[in-house]
Amino acid sequence: MSKASFIASLLQQGQYIEKYKEAGNSMLPIIKSNQPVSLIPITADTKLEVKDIVFCKVKGNYYTHLISA
Question: CA 16, CA 2: separation in Å to the nearest integer?
Answer without folding.
Answer: 18
